[in-house]
From TrEMBL:
<dbReference type="InterPro" id="IPR029045">
    <property type="entry name" value="ClpP/crotonase-like_dom_sf"/>
</dbReference>
<dbReference type="Pfam" id="PF00574">
    <property type="entry name" value="CLP_protease"/>
</dbReference>
<feature type="region of interest" description="Disordered">
    <location>
        <begin position="182"/>
        <end position="207"/>
    </location>
</feature>
<dbReference type="InterPro" id="IPR023562">
    <property type="entry name" value="ClpP/TepA"/>
</dbReference>
<protein>
    <recommendedName>
        <fullName>ATP-dependent Clp protease proteolytic subunit</fullName>
    </recommendedName>
</protein>
Length: 207
């Protein structure tokens, strides 16, 4: 095989483990997707820094990246925001998503006044990010509040039932890869829409 040839299909990115530990690498990979281009993002992450989550989410939207997010294992906490920013979202019956209030920590030597200001800032950030999460997923603030506080593990089936993602049966996952390859070979700018149209009706959920 000629190593100089471009790989077939959209760029694939794996968000695995803590977002904060992998922020530099994930940022570089997202910047490797041309503006308006397609990519697949596989999620198996417990979360991480909310600031890192905001940065990845912002890059996806600012560069108009047509990302398809697939929860291969866990997508929890801060990892929910880049997943919500994906144009298309896919889960399996075994996907797990944890919604909970933001958690923060600071250095032990932080001053009292600084800690008070940090708590104020984080409280405001939490409210705004919770609202944004519901907006990106296209669900009501009431549903987000029900899942976030005090915190709830949500299955792929529940997420799909709420209209936040498409549910694909485990034995049908190979069809996703086949459809991406087929759409890429068609070289059509609206390939993502055709992929959804070609999905079996029982496997589609509005996102």
């Amino acid at each position: 095989m000629d190593q100089s040839q471009e790989p077939e299909g959209p760029l694939e990115i794996a968000i695995v483990g803590d977002l904060t530990d992998n922020e530099s690498d994930l940022t570089e990979k997202l910047l490797g997707v041309e503006p308006g281009g397609e990519c697949l993002i596989y999620f198996d992450s417990p979360g991480g820094s909310p600031y890192c989550a905001m940065s990845l989410m912002t890059l996806i939207r600012m560069r108009r990246i047509r990302a398809t997010g697939i929860v291969t294992g866990e997508c929890s906490s801060a990892a929910l925001w880049p997943f919500a920013a994906c144009e298309r979202r896919i889960v399996t019956p075994y996907s797990v998503l944890l919604f909970h209030p933001m958690r923060w920590q600071s250095e032990e030597n932080v001053g009292l006044s600084e800690a008070a200001e940090w708590a104020r800032h984080f409280g405001q950030l939490e409210r705004e990010m919770d609202d944004l999460l519901g907006e990106l997923f296209g669900v009501s603030p009431e549903l987000m509040a029900k899942w976030i506080s005090p915190g709830r593990y949500v299955s792929g089936g529940e997420v799909a039932e709420a209209g936040m993602a498409e549910l694909v049966r485990f034995n049908d996952l190979h069809k996703i890869g086949d459809m991406f390859n087929a759409a890429e070979s068609d070289n059509h700018p609206q390939s993502n829409g055709r992929l959804k149209a070609h999905m079996p009706a029982e496997d589609r959920r509005a996102n």
